[in-house]
Structures are given as structure tokens and as C-alpha cells.
Amino acid sequence: MTLPVVCLLGPTASGKTGVAVDLVKRFPMEIISVDSAMVYRQMNIGTAKPEAEVLAIAPHHLIDVRDPWQTYSAGDFCTDAQELITNIHQRGRIPLLVGGTLLYFRALQSGLAPLPPADLAIRSELESRAAACGWPVLHAELAQADPDAAKKIHVTDRQRIQRALEVFMITGTPISQLQRLVPVKSPFSFTRIALIPDDRQALYRRIESRFQKMLAAGFVEEVHALMGLSDMFPELASMRAVGYRQIWQYLAGQGSLDDAGQQATQATRRLAKRQLTWLRSDADELSFDCLDERLATRVGDALQQLDLFDAISSASS
To answer: Which of 98, 112, 277, 295 has the largest CB neighbor count within 10 A?
Structure first.
């Protein structure tokens, strides 16, 4: 029997967490966060991480699993999520994957190319060389080793340059060639639920309102504290998250707080637009208006009709 996994996807500010908490109250489910920013510790306000009171009611797996100067990839997510899914099934419950990092959902469901795990020694060597000569020089080296990959990676994208060179140094094979290999698909049965607004402008107003609430809650102070950590610098993957990048620039003297707020809001709107485009390209999803006042009830009723809970009960008995 193929065991069920429920995926709750949606653009930023679509209310995914609220729906997920209601579902956990109603059904035997456990939440796995699918968010590339919530994995980082000390990044709470700008990621809209659930508050302690919410986590006490509905614990989230894969929140606060990395320090903000560390890396976390789609491959890391798949490894962690697959183990969690298996453990949740063994407890007789259904995994509820919730988030807006759609690449992670696709990687888990469709599989990833077989790439080697990170090699800390090689990464340290590349970091040292980049500190001495700059990432554009390493990008030029990548262009010699793997021109296809170099064409797709910006000369200042340190994380992707480092990973592509690392893979080549470990395997002797260009990462672009390995990525063309057929991935192994997940053995689980996925039910995908998409929260898509009927009124996009209303979602954008939510985004603007939420950012103002983040500022009032101390978002600037949160970024300032992160800047004070010795291992932090603005090119880190964590600091490329929407909002963090703009507030860091403001604190570094690049423009006013109003400028940073406008840029962050615009960047968040662009992110939501990309997420919606991706969601609408998948035809196998159940879709609900995220602005519906009875959203959680409608989603729960739809899940009730799918007999997923009978399947997991039978499998665990």
C-alpha cells in the first residue's frame, strides 16, 4: 500500500499556517514545514515563523534546524522529510507538509538527480580561495569545468558556484551532466492542496499589512542582531530571503527604512506572483480560495472525503 502524504501549498501570506493548525486539531496529522527560511534559527519575525503558542498546539518539524550561516538545500530537505514521513506513518498519523518553497515540494515528489553530499573540507577550501580572489574568479573556473552550469549561475551567486565546483571536484563530472540523470521518484502518495486567491490584489494588501506588522514586532532589530554575529555576511543564503536582504541593506546605510520597506514589499509581491504561476501549472491539485472565510473548514471537509485516514489506519494496524 502506498502511504498518503498531504501537501498544503500556497503563496506567501495565503494563510497556510492557520489552515494547517486547524487540520491538526481535526485529524491525526503532523506538520512538516516546507520553507527554506524557517529552517534557520534566530530568523523568526521576517520568516513569519509560527509563535510558541501555535507550536505548542501544532508542532512543526524542520523549523530551527540550521544556524543562519549554514546551508540547507533541496537535497537536505528531501533526506530529512523522507525520514520524518516514514516516522510519522509508523505512528499511525499522516504527514502534512506545509509551506511555500515549491522547489522543495517538487524535489520530494519528483525526485532529485543523484548528487554527492556536501564535503566540508572542499567547501572550506573554496571559501578560502574566494576570500582571497573573489567568487567571479571561481565562476570563471566553473566556466572551464562546466560551461552549461556557469551559464545559468550568476558570477556572484556564491552558494551555487561553490556547489557546482564541489560536485565537480568530488565526482569529476559536471553538475549539469548529473542533473540530467533520471531521478528516483518518491514512493509516497501525495495529495496536493493549493491555496490560491481569487483576488490577487487582496493578497498583495495582505503582504503589505504583514510587513508593517513585522516592522512593529521588531524585524529591524532582528536583522541587526543577525548582522552582529561573527559568521554572518549579506551573501549568505539565509540573508537572501525576502525582507532580510532589504533590511540588511538599510542597516548598512543603503537607503532609508521607507525605501527598504517598499523594496521588500515589491520583492514579496514578485515572489507571490512566481509562486502562483508555479501552482497554476500543476493540474493535480485541489484548489481553494485562500481569502475564503471558511477556508480551513472547506479544506478539512475535502480531506475527509478522500479516505486517507482509513488508509493510514489500515496500514498501521
So the answer is: 98
* E strand spans, the chain: 4-9, 29-33, 60-61, 94-99, 189-195, 285-288
Are the C-beta atoms of residues 13 and 207 closer than 8 Å to each other? yes
| Residues 273, 238: Cα–Cα separation, whole Å | 21
Give the whole-angstrom CA distance, residue 39 versus residue 61.
9
Indicate the pTM of the whole model.
0.82
Q: What are the residue boundaries of the structural domains of the chain, listed by start?
A: 4-112+183-316, 120-178
For residue 96, list its beta bridge partners.
Answer: 6, 31
Beta strands 4-9 and 94-99: pairing type? parallel
Measured over the CA atoms of residue 74, residue 76, residue 80 and residue 82, the dihedral's sign is positive
Looking up cell 559568521 gives 231
Average pLDDT over residues 253-280: 94
**Angle between helical axes of 120-133 and 158-171 (0-180°, round to 10):** 130
Amino acid at 184: V
The torsion region of residue 222 among left (phi > 0), alpha (psi -120 to 50) and beta comes to alpha
Kindly report the CATH number that applies to the domain delimited by 120-178: 1.10.20.140
Tell me the CATH architecture of domain 4-112+183-316.
Answer: 3-Layer(aba) Sandwich (3.40)
Query: Which residues, in sequence order, are bridge partners of residue 40?
Result: 66
pLDDT of residue 162: 93
Residues in the chain: 317
Q: Mean pLDDT over residues 122-127, rounded?
A: 90
